[in-house]
Amino acid sequence: MVDLFRFLWLVILLLNLFITKSVTAFVPTSRYYQGSIIIGTKIYFLGGIDNSGKGTNSLFYLDVSSPFNSANPKWTDLTSVAPIPVNSAFAPSCVGGSNKATIFLFEHHRTNNDNSTILVTFTFDSTTQTWAAPTTSGAIPQTRQDMRAVVDNNGKIYINGGFEPSITHKSYNSTFIFNSLSLSWTNGPNAPIIRSAYTATLLSSGLIVYIGGTNDDPSPEINMNSVIKFS
Q1: Is residue 84 part of a domain?
Q2: Do β-strands 175-179 and 75-77 pair in parallel, antiparallel, or remain unpaired?
Q3: Of 146, 148, 155, nearest in space to 181 by CA
Q4: Whole-prediction pTM value?
Q5: How many structural domains are present in the chain?
Q6: E strands along the chain, which residues?
Q7: How does pLDDT run across 142-191, given as a tens digit for each residue?
Q8: Number of neighbouring beta carbons within 10 Å of residue 22
Q9: What does the alpha-carbon distance between residue 77 and residue 136 come to, in Å, rounded to a whole number?
């Protein structure tokens, strides 16, 4: 009788644990204009505009080290322990640093209530799960958003064009190069086309290919055949 009671108690305990885990499983809200970075087997997602219509400070990841159910993926939320320092959307991000385990997020504001005139660099150390706002040097770009960032094997992050959201409300063709090892900025050559909201792809040859996006023309969509190569 005692053994039966213990067995039933164990079954009830396991059921409670299963139900609690199922109820409290983290599921991110719907969003767009979020950033995504892969480090090792984890895809990190940064910010994005949710159903409130505003940017968020969310940070969570999906571990793809083993097969998972795409209809019900297992998310891990880091927002409670490592929220992004500002509500983020439209911001370029990239992995870099000496250990290639640091996320670099380039924002157009320092705080949620203060737009900046220059790009603000935030870093997230994925090993310690901590954010920082390091001091950068060199030709720090004016604030922009809706850009894409790619990084080469030497830790240099390349960012092109983008849209200025506060003063000019225009897109640009500038090229910015950020050294994620020395935390310094330099200017690259201007692109032939003004654009934002494009795709940027780094090829194994080291060539960066820019395709699509928008500009300030009356018909802003850029022809997909207008492919720009940068090396």
Answers
A1: no
A2: unpaired
A3: 155
A4: 0.87
A5: 1
A6: 35-39, 42-46, 59-63, 75-77, 93-96, 102-111, 114-125, 130-132, 137-138, 149-151, 156-160, 175-179, 184-188, 199-202, 208-211, 228-230
A7: 999 999 999 999 999 999 999 998 888 999 999 999 999 999 999 999 99
A8: 8
A9: 29
Is residue 38 one of the residues assigned to a domain? no
**190 is a domain residue:** yes
Residue type, 113: N
In a domain, 118, yes or no: yes
**CATH number, position 155:** 2.120.10.80
What are the two backbone dihedrals, phi and then psi, of residue 165, each rounded to the nearest 5 degrees? -90, -10
Strand bridging mode 75-77 / 59-63? antiparallel
Name the region of 21 (left: φ>0; alpha: ψ -120 to 50; beta: rest): alpha
Radius of gyration of the chain measured on its C-alpha atoms: 21
* Site of tokens 């040859």: 205
Q: Are 47 and 84 in contact (CB under 8 A)?
A: yes
Range of the domain at 209: 95-231
Of the candidates 163, 170, 130, 31, which has an alpha carbon nearest to the alpha carbon of residue 88?
31
Per-residue pLDDT tens digits for 69-123: 888 899 999 999 999 999 999 999 999 999 999 999 999 888 888 878 899 999 9
For 22, 24, 70, 74, the CA distances from 67, given in Å and listed in that order, are 19, 22, 9, 11
